[in-house]
């Protein structure tokens, strides 16, 4: 079997970057963090109107803007002290906290953020496969992207990569049965939210199938 010789337009790292990640200071109450994540709102968004081309600028590749951005639910929060990235808090972290049944009203972002952050520094040598490898090796869904001088540019997510990556001919050589999951977590539609969260933590999954009357919803 031969591969198609036509070139495939693979997206660049710049194509994958979300320039409007949710960024919050460490002293933000966790209740407020959850609300902002569900709304996808960011009070300190990055603006594409202030892009700086890749080069030797000591200010980095992009400049910040006080513009407000909103969109779908955010899967992570970048914790910022001024212009410095000091931590990250993800939807997976939130699930683990809720599963412990702690008092969310007494917790601040600094108490639950991960201080060791895996990042990608943008350069001429990095590409989409660099981002994929970093995400896969560290079992993360979101990857903060920094300019060469350390300033935050945005994030790259697995979801965004999946949407941007074109169909590749090598995938035609594999059967669905070779890459599918052999087992999935299914629960009745009447299952409580707490039980769902506990199952997600126990099974280390990001989603669960809901069923009603023997049918998947």
From TrEMBL:
Keyword Cell membrane present in the record's keywords: the answer is no
Keywords noted in UniProt: CBS domain
Instruction: Read off the Pfam families from this record.
Output: CBS
Tagged with keyword Hydrolase: no
User: Which InterPro entries does UniProt cross-reference here?
Assistant: CBS_dom (IPR000644), CBS_dom_sf (IPR046342), Diverse_CBS-Domain (IPR051257)
Protein name per Swiss-Prot or TrEMBL = CBS domain-containing protein
Cross-referenced PROSITE patterns: CBS
Identify the residues that the record assigns to the CBS domain, covering every copy. Answer: 113-173
């Amino acid at each position: 079997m031969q591969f198609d010789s036509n070139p495939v337009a693979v997206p660049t790292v710049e194509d994958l970057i979300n320039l409007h990640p949710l960024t919050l200071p460490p002293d933000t109450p966790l209740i407020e963090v959850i609300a902002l994540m569900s709304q996808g709102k960011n009070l300190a968004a990055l603006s594409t109107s202030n892009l700086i081309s890749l080069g030797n600028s000591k200010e980095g590749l992009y400049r910040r803007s006080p513009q407000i951005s909103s969109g779908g639910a955010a899967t992570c929060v970048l914790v910022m002290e001024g212009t410095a990235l000091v931590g990250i808090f993800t939807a997976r972290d939130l699930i683990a906290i809720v599963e412990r049944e702690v008092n969310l009203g007494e917790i601040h972002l600094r108490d639950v953020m991960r201080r060791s952050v895996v990042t990608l520094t943008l350069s001429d040598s990095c590409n989409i496969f660099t981002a994929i490898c970093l995400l896969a090796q560290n079992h993360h869904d979101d990857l903060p992207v920094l300019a060469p001088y350390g300033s935050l540019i945005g994030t790259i997510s697995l979801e965004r990569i999946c949407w941007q990556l074109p169909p590749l001919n090598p995938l035609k050589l594999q059967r669905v049965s070779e890459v599918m999951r052999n087992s999935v977590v299914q629960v009745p539609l009447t299952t409580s939210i707490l039980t769902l969260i506990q199952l997600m933590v126990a099974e280390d999954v990001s989603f669960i199938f809901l069923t009603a009357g023997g049918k998947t919803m």
